[in-house]
Amino acid sequence: MSKLVVVDHPLVQHKLTLMRRTECSSKEFRELLNEISMFMAYEVTRDLPLKDVEVETPICKTVKKMIAGRKLAIVPVLRAGLGMVDGFLSLVPNAKVGHIGLYRDPQTMEPVEYYCKLPADMEERETVVVDPMLATGGSASAAVSFIKKHNCKHIKLMCLIAAPEGIERIQKDHPDVDIYVAGVDECLNDHCYIVPGLGDAGDRLFGTK
What we know:
This protein is of the alpha/beta class. Helix content is 31%, strand content 32%. The protein has a single domain (4-206), classed as Rossmann fold, CATH 3.40.50. The protein contains six helices and 13 strands. Strands 1, 4, 5, 6, 7, 8, 9, 10 and 11 form a nine-stranded mixed β-sheet that branches. The chain is globular.
């Protein structure tokens, strides 16, 4: 089963509480999401492999560590996932960014891919799918499935808030995908919104509520 990591650093929890407030403006929401995403990227990249390299300091030559192995790709799920990209890139500026867009078919209620643009070398990259809200898990699971079709085998999911139902869905559908969240909330309501949650992340991010 995939690993669940809750990034419970005090600064992350403080900023997440600020985001939940109804009176949090779109400007504040964007800034806080950007900051939390940077903190979370620190944890998501914690297990990146290292290699020994020789460097010369002003004092002498020495052997120290640098990142080795697979390069990184960030794939936001449109549209709310866009708000998590810049924070991640502030730590890993050389990461490539893909995009995936999904909508729910009104007849079948299944996620349908309407846009997908990924780096050509996805099979060589450690991929982080970013989406603020993990509610039912349907869209996130579909996004991971679509990315896997592009020969990507090393995938992590980074979300701001998750419901237990969404976590269970990802762990069932993709036991090889670790999940990183800033908070696990109580449940979903009748409209599949996370409770207590923070409302529609896309609307609050872009001021369309």
